[in-house]
Design a protein that fits this description.
three-stranded mixed sheet; three-stranded antiparallel sheet; 30% helix; 41% strand
């Protein structure tokens, strides 16, 4: 087995800058060390590593053996993998409301849900925060988005939802805004506006 080629293949993973595999006896992998540019979450990179090793070399590696160091490197760009909205569900029962958002990324579906007080302001917040949760899960991020505000603005005879969130990645804080026409589905408009904001951040 060509160990150098294996490292080179891992280095081709999006956002990975360099890779080093520590082998034990024979071709047994003891440790995998990666340096990434901070543009993708470590969980997503680790899943890519496991998939490549299993599909290409029939090696099943425990995620605990994968170590990823994040550095800020603006010279390496990510592919424009935008998340797609697959569905929004809002259910109300007495004083409680449940929000469920389903998205897809690279052909894989991700779902997140929240339940809380059934007030208009709180369900707006849950729509945004559930969307942020599922986007973070799909990209392997943890706690990088923070909900700031939501407004409905009349423009040219129609209503526009405007969402503002804060994104923090690689020690860079950015105010993100997205918008969507309300149309016939207010809930979907809120989710689409949220995706409009964060898609620009995760694909830049």
């Amino acid at each position: 087995m060509d160990h150098k080629l294996m490292e080179d293949n891992l280095q081709r993973i999006e956002s990975v800058v360099s890779s080093k595999i520590v082998f034990g006896n024979g071709d047994n992998i003891d440790e995998i060390h990666l340096v990434a540019n901070g543009h993708r979450g470590p969980k997503q990179i680790a899943r890519d590593v496991q998939s490549i090793l299993l599909a290409t070399y029939d090696i099943d590696v425990d995620h605990k053996k994968i170590s990823i160091a994040q550095i800020q490197d603006d010279t390496l760009k990510r592919k424009a993998n935008r998340v797609r909205l697959e569905g929004v569900l809002r259910e109300s029962r007495d004083s409680r409301a449940t929000i469920k958002v389903v998205i897809s990324l690279d052909g894989e579906e991700f779902t997140s849900s929240r339940t809380g007080v059934n007030s208009s302001r709180n369900t707006d917040r849950m729509l945004v925060e559930t969307t942020l949760d599922v986007v973070q899960e799909a990209n392997g991020f943890e706690d990088i988005f923070l909900f700031d505000d939501i407004r409905q603005v009349p423009v040219a005879g129609t209503n526009i939802i405007v969402i503002c969130v804060t994104g923090v990645i690689a020690e860079t804080e950015q105010r993100l805004c997205g918008a969507s026409v309300v149309g016939n589905d207010y809930n979907k408009a809120v989710v689409k506006a949220t995706l409009d904001a964060v898609n620009r951040f995760i694909t830049k």
